[in-house]
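User: Hey, my collaborator sent me this sequence without any context and asked if I could get a structure. I don't really work with proteins. Can you help?
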Amino acid sequence: MFRHANKLFWLIFLIGIASCNNEQRELREKRLFFQQHSLQHVGNKEYISVFQGLRDSVNDWKNNGLGYYIYLGKSINYQIDSLLCFNTEKTKFIGVLLKQQLLKTGVQDDIEYIYGVKIKNDWYFFAGATIVLPREYYQKDIHTPLSFEKLHEIAMKEVFSGYLKKNPQGQWEVNEDFFRDLTSVAWCTDCKSQAQWDSAYFFWIKRNWERK
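Assistant: No problem. I've predicted the 3D structure and written it out in structure-token form, which is a compact way to encode the shape of the chain:
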């Protein structure tokens, strides 16, 4: 009886591992597909240029001591997720900044939204909301930061999953609803024209630099 129960336990355990591995594999495959679609959508040259511009901007925020960015590379380890999701018109994108809290007292890590808008052929970047990730939800050791691989997986599930959708012909296309946050009242309560939205974005970009 005990031997039978023991076999059953290991069978359930192995099924659980296989299920977890399948989910991770599916997320990696979905992520790769999304990134390939985004690269084809805007072109490799534009994609790389925007990513490099975003990386330079985050470094500027860090080096100029803007808000908490002064702690990047010190008490916060970070990566810019390589997946950037562009809208149909290629004038906006949504990305994320992955952050590991390095302080011994830290028991959580973070995923921060990073937005980009193209105004008069120039790209501008600014930060959005932060998703707080208590480590106890994902692992037993709450004093060790979540791996960047794990943060990438979580970002794929919690942020990027709605980027693409299938059209009536069964083909994958950009889901414009995914970008609704960039035109929400959180940024502007009464913007109607593109010029008004551009002005609102410039306000938030300027406000970011005022946090120094």
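In plain terms: Confidence is low (pLDDT under 50) at residues 1-5, 8-19. You can pass these tokens on to your collaborator as they are.
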